[in-house]
Amino acid sequence: MDWKRSLNKGCALLLIVVMTLSLFTFNMPTISAVEDELVELKILHTNDIHARINEFGKMAAYIKAEREAASHSLYLDAGDIFSGNPVVDLQYGLPMVALLNEVGLQAMAIGNHEFDYGQEETVKRMEQADFPWLSANMFVGEDTLVDFPQPEPYHLFELEGLTVGVVALTETPPSTAPINVTGITFEDPIETAKNYQHLEEETDILIALTHVGYSVDRQLAEEVDFFDLIIGGHSHTTLNQPAVVNGTPIVQAGGNGENIGNVTVFFNPASREVEAVEGFLQNVSALTSVDPEVQAMVDQYNAEMEELLSEEIGYTETGLTRSGSNDTSLGNFWTDAMRHYTDADIALTNNGGIRANIGVGPLTVRDIYTIEPFANEIMTYEMTGAALKDVIQFSYERRQSIDLQTSGLHYTILTNNTGRYVDAELYLNGEPIEEDATYTVAVGDYIGAGGSGYDFQGTVLNALTGMMTDAMITYAKYLTANGHPINYDANERITIDVTEAPIEGEPVGSTDYGLSSVHNRNGDSGLGNLYTDAVRAETGADFAVLNGSSVSGNIPAGVITDSQIEFLDQYNNRVEVVKTNLDRLKDVILTQSNYHGGVDLQASGLHYQLIKEESQFVDVLLTLPDGTPLDQEKEYVVAYNDYMHGSSFYNLGTVMVEQEYPLVWKAVVDYIRAHEGPIDYQEGSRITIEQSEESQDYLTVAEAIANNQGIGTVQGYIVGTMTGNFDGPFVTTNIMLADSPDQRDMEQILPVQLPNNQIRSALNLVDHPDNLGKRIQITGDLDLYFSVPGLRSPTQYQFVEEAEEPELPLISIAEARAVSNGEQVKIIGTATTNSGNWGGAGFYLQDGTAGIYVYQTELDSEAGDQVVLTGSKNVFNGEVQLSNISELEVVGNDTIPDPLILTPNQLSTINEGMLVQVEGVTITDLKQVNEYGTFEFNATVNGETVLVRVDNRTGLIYDDFDFEVGDQVTITGISSVHRDTIQLKPRGVNDVVEFEEDQLESVVDASIKIDRNRIMIEDDSIERLAEGGTLTIDLKDLDWTHYRVELTTEQLVALVAKKASLDVIASDIQLNIPMINFAENTSFALVMEKITDIENSISSVYQLTIEDGNRIISSFEEEGITLSFAVDTKEVNNQGDLKIFYLNDNSDWQLVGGKYSLGYVTAITDHFSLFTVWNQNEEDLPHVEEEETNNDDDQESLTDDDSGGNQQVDEPEESEDISITQTLPRTATSTYNWLLLGFVLIMVGGAFILFRSNKSASKD
């Protein structure tokens, strides 16, 4: 166009000459303009709408109005109009194209998500569109799945004499399932663009319309200088004004239909040059005008899908989020659904396919299609363990972070100090994956067919097993039908561990305790504090804030290197500085905290507290670090990163501090270098979460209309339905609320959606016309409904004001451990450790039921303090803990509980968090594990081993440890678990002592106490008992007919741990009971009842029973119980004929066996029943049989609700029956067998006995 630019203005002296010249320059645009008058081209642009159609009425009105006011205008879109809204996605994009046709879109760059519905549907949408789909670097071959048209590379617009060229570029390769682009290739976008320089001569204004992302747009501007403007998409970057790179302006409007870009290009017809480009973003939510025709289309599309999408398929109390650096709660639900649907061993899905979070409340079909808008299908492979490990390695190395969510498979990524992959450990059902073994693996067809570079090596068992959405809907319904809420936790399946691989990079500093992002969502983290402090120091800003996903990883205790910091920052974000006000800062913090379901922004220079009501953050309180409130009127300088500045949901302002700042990671390295001494932080000191105790306020209808966003509870009168008729006929799908029952002004009325669930059933006016005029409170999403402020997706309602939340009751620690993760609990217990032994000010707390770790940073407590606290139950690194402590108080001092005496193998999740002791263990594998003195060793006895970890923060370090390998010691400490490894954690130097074997005795006489008929151990006799020893309970001084010997849970556990026996000795019977039989019990009671109405037996007759709560233990699988009956041998001719018998189900006395010695007949039995001694040659003994070892007869089930615990000591009454829940052998254990005994007595001929037996039976 040089000849145009070289026109001789001097020759235009006469108007007739100018007119004559214009006739000859016929190929020049005939713009009506006076010399030097600029022509303005108005361009409205959108990108990455992702099917968000609800605000299209506003968008249409604005775009049409702006174009009508302009002499020259275009409306362009930079791609990704599909995938993100089930109303559109379930109709394969048809509503989206129809709306864009109506709004008047003139050209679109093809984005990667335009292929998501498959080639057949993509072609249909291209044919449906009234606008061209453009892509210069997309080439259609002969092997496509359908007849796919070749898109045009560019389009020329003739606008009143102005020629505008639009060249389009597409992401390479597009992020969609590979099958969707079969037969289509994509060339390098920048190299492709260079081929269109000839358009510079053919156009007045040349525009690149791209779907390649902001970073590639910048490269394009650097390498190609003939575009007058780049309109971008794909990266969802919010550029509030054009970013100029190498003289080329770049614009982008964020994403999801939140903004409309408004650009004016000033063209000089005389110089044939673009002289200026100006632009801004119009926030759609701030618009008020609505195009009625377009909005009617939107409402119609929504109404058509409402019934399907509003179906409730479950309820989640925890919410399901994709946020997190390891496994996430939504990822765990998702993959469990895949595995349930396919019956595979393992299910995997990539993080990029999970597109949204699900909040606490009802789970609907809409939620499922929102989180998975791509119509992906599930395929199954048979893979070797080696191939599976290769996939896991690739998944981590592609971005040096976790990408694959998992079910069935648990895996640990092992890295060096920089986070670089070293190895991986894979487990299935707790067992290591074997390289040569094969496993069935379910994956989405996107990654299964090679998307994102994945390569699943193996045999395809089924290429299409069903839709991913169908799997999740089916699984949610399955859980709901079985009474289970859809509750999931994170960080339970995937971990990242730092190995002792050689350190990479130049040392720049150190940390004593390590810096991690693991607590990002609960408050400030060590890594978050480091990053934000560094950014603030670099810039001198008042504050620094960074989004949680940009602060991710772990720096272990020890040396910090520059390579380590560089590697942790995968995004290469650059520091940016803006001026902002508190209202905007609070809005970003609050909005993002609710979106992520926890803390998102890490901070420096300020402290903030999130106020939470139920599951929603409702306010944020900002102060300086010293607690001084911030000035509401002041403008503050805030440093953050360029990603946040370019994202509308993080952007803090348009006024930037113009200065070139470094990349974030470089600022962090500089800060560490300049820091004196180790860098460590007290986590939880800057950011906290406060659960509001106030009951939720309600909004009036007027307030809900004026502030129509977020979740709210609205109070108003039901005045009709949105048919516009206040008296009927009504519809079932909605109601209208007003502040007065007589309100008829539609602008003062709030429409309320009634989803297809119990709320519709209860509130709709068709079935309940009497609801008209009633006042209710209803909670839901405040959002546009019928194109006006409304309330959607209600979760609860009531016709009276809500009751106040009751105060949390005190519960036991065992009950607290059993609640769902995230649930608030209130407990009281005794601290068994000092605070801070394992970081922060955390400590272990214990009561009579269990123990638990308390993570907190506020209170310094000591072992023995009695503490009451309120917090939420969570799991961290596999260990149950309480965190987010909202109430914490020392209320007294108590004796530290005695430790449970266990063997190494008995440390488990059952006693996790409790104070325990292992005795006589030998130290092996002693080693220091960090430079600060933390050390570990194995403690072994009798072939059982447990790992002992001594943290240097307890005050005991490796160099001061008095013992060495081979020493025999007794260790006291906390039973703990760390990432599936059971650990014993001593509290300090006094917890590891030399083992003194003479402390323990092989036989110990227990001291007993008697409470009514209950006999209990009251001394430390079990502690003095050696392993394999015998504890004796002497009852010879008690001449009772009913004995009940009880053990506490701790006593039972200790006896089982010692593999001890219990000797119970009465005047006429002795029992030797191996306690290993009762390892699964939670309680233990031995009941011995003497039966006095059995005649002619050689010994006393006893019914023997062992109870575990309300359960009868009738058979003993480990070791038999020895019975010894005292016998009178005066009239016995042959003592060898004396044997022990039991009464079986047929009322026959059946032989157990036995041997006579020193006045006792002794035998071993593997079950309990009614026992006595008979002469085996006695003629009157009925039907003596050999004892059967296999018998399938069922024991009758008895029910009662009293254990007989209220009898007097001097003569206890007979105990009543106890419910039996276990099938017994052929025994007569239950008291119903007294009826059978009555028949035996009839055979003996005792009419008087028969009378008594029937009387006894009637009592039962």
TrEMBL record:
<dbReference type="GO" id="GO:0000166">
    <property type="term" value="F:nucleotide binding"/>
</dbReference>
<keyword id="KW-0812">Transmembrane</keyword>
<keyword id="KW-0964">Secreted</keyword>
<feature type="transmembrane region" description="Helical">
    <location>
        <begin position="1232"/>
        <end position="1251"/>
    </location>
</feature>
<feature type="compositionally biased region" description="Acidic residues">
    <location>
        <begin position="1185"/>
        <end position="1203"/>
    </location>
</feature>
<keyword id="KW-0472">Membrane</keyword>
<protein>
    <submittedName>
        <fullName>5'-nucleotidase C-terminal domain-containing protein</fullName>
    </submittedName>
</protein>
<dbReference type="Pfam" id="PF19886">
    <property type="entry name" value="DUF6359"/>
</dbReference>
<dbReference type="InterPro" id="IPR036907">
    <property type="entry name" value="5'-Nucleotdase_C_sf"/>
</dbReference>
<dbReference type="GO" id="GO:0030288">
    <property type="term" value="C:outer membrane-bounded periplasmic space"/>
</dbReference>
<feature type="region of interest" description="Disordered">
    <location>
        <begin position="1183"/>
        <end position="1222"/>
    </location>
</feature>
<keyword id="KW-1133">Transmembrane helix</keyword>
<keyword id="KW-0732">Signal</keyword>
<keyword id="KW-0572">Peptidoglycan-anchor</keyword>
<keyword id="KW-0134">Cell wall</keyword>
<dbReference type="GO" id="GO:0016788">
    <property type="term" value="F:hydrolase activity, acting on ester bonds"/>
</dbReference>
<dbReference type="Pfam" id="PF02872">
    <property type="entry name" value="5_nucleotid_C"/>
</dbReference>
<dbReference type="InterPro" id="IPR004843">
    <property type="entry name" value="Calcineurin-like_PHP"/>
</dbReference>
<dbReference type="GO" id="GO:0046872">
    <property type="term" value="F:metal ion binding"/>
</dbReference>
<dbReference type="InterPro" id="IPR006146">
    <property type="entry name" value="5'-Nucleotdase_CS"/>
</dbReference>
<dbReference type="InterPro" id="IPR006179">
    <property type="entry name" value="5_nucleotidase/apyrase"/>
</dbReference>
<dbReference type="InterPro" id="IPR045939">
    <property type="entry name" value="YhcR_N"/>
</dbReference>
<dbReference type="InterPro" id="IPR019931">
    <property type="entry name" value="LPXTG_anchor"/>
</dbReference>
<dbReference type="Pfam" id="PF00149">
    <property type="entry name" value="Metallophos"/>
</dbReference>
<feature type="domain" description="Gram-positive cocci surface proteins LPxTG">
    <location>
        <begin position="1224"/>
        <end position="1260"/>
    </location>
</feature>
<dbReference type="InterPro" id="IPR008334">
    <property type="entry name" value="5'-Nucleotdase_C"/>
</dbReference>
<dbReference type="InterPro" id="IPR029052">
    <property type="entry name" value="Metallo-depent_PP-like"/>
</dbReference>
<dbReference type="GO" id="GO:0009166">
    <property type="term" value="P:nucleotide catabolic process"/>
</dbReference>
